[in-house]
Design brief:
disordered N terminus, Si:ch211-66e2.5, about 300 residues, Immunoglobulin-like, rod-shaped, binds 2-acetamido-2-deoxy-beta-D-glucopyranose, 27 strands, 1 helix
């Protein structure tokens, strides 16, 4: 396009200068524009020009009178736009050009989070992959993806090595080995476009919905050791078999002394338990554990 213009002006394309010795100044030198927003950038020449103009697919413009020319777009939607300001001067260097540093950005349409290949419950101590997907974001090189567990940032992922200017979909994977303390923890990921000081402040961000992860684990007794109880005859006996587990454990008590089954209660409380061995089993889908209680009567006369 510029070549056409230079031909029209009857000039040869030799020795086009850009950079410091160029007498052109773009203001602002870096423009960060939201997709669909208007933009206006000026190009100012510091010495007399024959022609000053903007080479651009859209909104090309030029002047033969002024020392300043604007590149103005009402709604910028062209992802590959690379406007260049050029000047043709009366004196050497006769041709100059400056490229506008233009960043057209678009916030992601959505950010989603999921557990990869999730069919069965999440089990303590096993490895799982969480995936965060960012849909339709540009330019991805400015994207930072942050992973959070509750309020804590656990990992971040940059995409600075990627170059496309057009919107893309990207994803990040977080490996987790959950423990029981993390049962019910909320995971989220956040996409942030770090567009620099010329960009919007604070940087545009989109947060994923939160993913709650229930961590399943087998029953564990607070004190797994066998318990010996010496009680006076007729006094109430309390056998506490409470175990922690997810899903909540169910309990079965067995003893030659128990006529009726005393199922599904973690604590056996009775004044009529006769001496002997009582076994409690706590179980859930991940396993079962047993614990023994031995009741002895205090010998009389002591
Ligand atoms: C997910 O499951 C599919 C099919 O079962 C398997 O091919 C793939 O490797 C799994 N991906 C991960 C990350 O485990
Ligand atoms: C990413 O996390 C590291 C620590 O893991 C931190 O030093 C760095 O500042 C973070 N990067 C961003 C862009 O927040």
């Amino acid at each position: 396009m510029k070549n056409n213009l230079l031909c029209f002006l009857g000039l040869s394309i030799i020795g086009i200068v850009s950079g410091d010795s160029c007498s052109l100044e773009i203001s602002p030198p870096r423009a960060v524009v939201k997709f669909g927003d208007p933009v206006t950038v000026s190009c100012v020449a510091s010495r007399p020009v024959r022609v000053l103009g903007w080479e651009s697919i859209i909104a090309a413009s030029h002047t033969q009178h002024d020392l300043s020319v604007q590149w103005r777009v009402d709604s910028l939607t062209d992802w590959i736009e690379e406007p260049i300001c050029y000047g043709v001067f009366f004196t050497a260097p006769r041709q100059c050009e400056e490229k506008l540093n233009l960043v057209l950005y678009k916030k992601p349409d959505s950010v989603s989070i999921s557990l990869v290949n999730h069919s069965s419950p999440v089990v303590e101590g096993r490895e799982y992959q969480l995936q965060c997907e960012v849909h339709n974001v540009a330019p991805v090189q400015y994207l930072v993806l942050r992973w959070y567990r509750e309020q804590t940032e656990v990992y971040n992922h940059s995409f600075s090595e990627l170059t496309p200017a057009t919107p893309v979909q990207v994803s990040s994977t977080l490996l987790i080995v959950p423990n029981r303390a993390e049962d019910g923890a909320q995971y989220r990921c956040e996409a942030e476009l770090q567009l620099g000081p010329e960009g919007p402040q604070p940087p545009p961000t989109v947060l994923s919905p939160s993913l709650n992860i229930a961590v399943h684990y087998p029953p564990d007794f607070r004190s797994p050791k066998e318990e010996q109880l010496e009680v006076s005859e007729g006094s109430e006996v309390v056998l506490d078999c409470t175990a922690e587990g997810n899903p909540l454990p169910v309990y079965i008590w067995t003893s030659p002394n128990l006529q009726e089954k005393a199922d599904d209660q973690p604590v056996l409380k009775d004044a009529s338990l006769s001496p002997g061995v009582y076994t409690c089993t706590a179980s859930n889908i991940l396993g079962k554990k047993s614990k023994q209680f031995v009741i002895k009567h205090k010998s009389k006369g002591v």
